[in-house]
Amino acid sequence: MIKDLWYKNAVIYNLAVGTFMDADGDGIGDFQGLQRRLDYLHGLGVTCLWLGPFQPSPMKDDGYDIADYYNVDPRYGTLGDFVEFSHACKQRGIRLIIDLVINHTSDQHPWFQAARRDPNSKYRNWYVWSDKKPSNADEGMVFPGVQKTTWTWDKEAEAYYFHRFYEFQPDLNTSNPEVQAELLKVMGFWIELGVSGFRMDAVPFIISTKGPDVKKPKEQFDMLRMFREFVQWRCGDAMILAEANVLPDTDLEYFGDDGDRMHMVFNFQVNQNLFYAMAAADTRPLVKALKATKPRPATAQWGQFLRNHDELDLGRLDDEQRKRVFEVFGPDKDMQLYDRGIRRRLAPMLHGDRRRLELAYSLLFTLPGTPVIRYGDEIGMGDDLSLPERNCARTPMQWSDEPHGGFTKSDKPILPVISGGVFGYERINAARQRRDPAALLNWTERMIRMRKECPEIGWGDFEILPTGSPAVLAMRYDWKNNSVVIIHNLDDKPKEIALAVGGVGESDRLVNLLTEDHSDPGDDGKHHLVIEAYGYRWYREGGLDYLLRRTES
Ligand code: NOJ
């Protein structure tokens, strides 16, 4: 296992324990089930798992409402099962990161219960209170349309409490040093049980000033350095991946000028522009987003993704662009959510079209940074729009054509498994795809293998190469005397391009990494290529001796 900056060339796979695999037959996925599926994940080639929250929780927000930071929800198993599982990951060289939900707790957390009961409790000041309803109580809701306010009256406390998210998720007073000390203890606990880091939930809100008099919240960036130092003191190569949907000019604050804050941040800017690019076959705004998020400290890394467990947030696009993405990928009202996004999974958005799925995945694997895959996308799973809010894209993994997709032996799965139609488990399941070399699952496995052999993408610098067509994106990555050139045609028509690749090694040939279709430059020194509709090419510059030239990180 490569130590230190391992996240630079990782492939991260996100899953929720409760919907992955049920071993004890109660209808809810658990750690023992997940452990039995580790060889599947190992075979797929992913190098790091990101687990959604699995601590005890009333589950009103899919576990993002934690009632005990130091335990495993009994539905999923025991702490013992967790340690067995984290050990099993280690044995296979798979890293484990877990969600760290510390902006808020559940209202059922004993800290909040004590705080609301007794104004003199030491926990009172762990939350954010106000005697009067603050004038901005109806602003800043994260779930507009579903969430009514950010300040709710608590009868027992006889005060209003602040909650950036739902009313059952009271915000922790994260500026309080006692709270900070406890949160570090939480991190230390899970590091001791074998995790390599955290996906830190809602980072801009964790570090923001909170209180009834706060009109313009300020971000306290020094807190990020404190978190980073702590995890690295406890475990030298631990990593934090921040969920921070912020503008390109502020994201540098999250990495820190010297790379001393977050190791990784999700690139929401690129994500939204990528969907626009796919909807409109126009890569110009995407190129702008790539350039705007390009200069980053050497140890920092972007997390790139297509879909995740939340809605596809389009809030950063302009009105016209957003309209276009809605029209193409989420035209019906019930496909949309919170006035800003689309709640569908990737495959139905792309009408299950294999060419477009491959294009989307090929883009994901070749964007600057580390790809983060959502469970089930490797087999092209669909969604169930009859389920409320974001649950539509959180249905159980489809393993086989056995009842309930082989996810559980129970007749009451935690969420219904998608059945019937194009995306039902009878047609879309891992067992069936494993037997078919041409299936999406096996294609994904081959792409992951190739992505890992292209460390230039994770480590190197990129340059956008002019293609003369807004529908065609060409990028060149350079790292340690090696280069790859990656081309995508986002249009439904073939495109002819003449590509000047730049300084080439010993040979001018572009070696195709995925097929035998290599390219030699014409007399004008350019590569004349016809890229088929939704086509993608991964080339390596200068011949096949790259393996000899490659030096390890
Ligand atoms: C972001 C998570 O991704 C989302 O699922 C959750 O509802 C909120 N944070 C609140 O924790």
Automatic annotation (TrEMBL):
GO molecular-function terms, A-Z: alpha-amylase activity; maltose alpha-D-glucosyltransferase activity
Record keywords, A-Z: Glycosidase, Hydrolase, Isomerase
Superkingdom assignment: Bacteria
Keyword Isomerase (UniProt): yes
EC number: 3.2.1.1, 5.4.99.16
Taxonomic source organism: Azospirillum rugosum
Full protein name: Maltose alpha-D-glucosyltransferase/alpha-amylase
Short name of any one Pfam family annotated for the protein: SupH-like_C
Stretches assigned to the Glycosyl hydrolase family 13 catalytic domain: 14-439
InterPro entries according to UniProt: GH (IPR017853), GH13_cat_dom (IPR006047), Glyco_hydro_b (IPR013780), O16G_dom_2 (IPR045857), SupH-like_C (IPR054049)
SUPFAM superfamilies: (Trans)glycosidases (SSF51445), Glycosyl hydrolase domain (SSF51011)
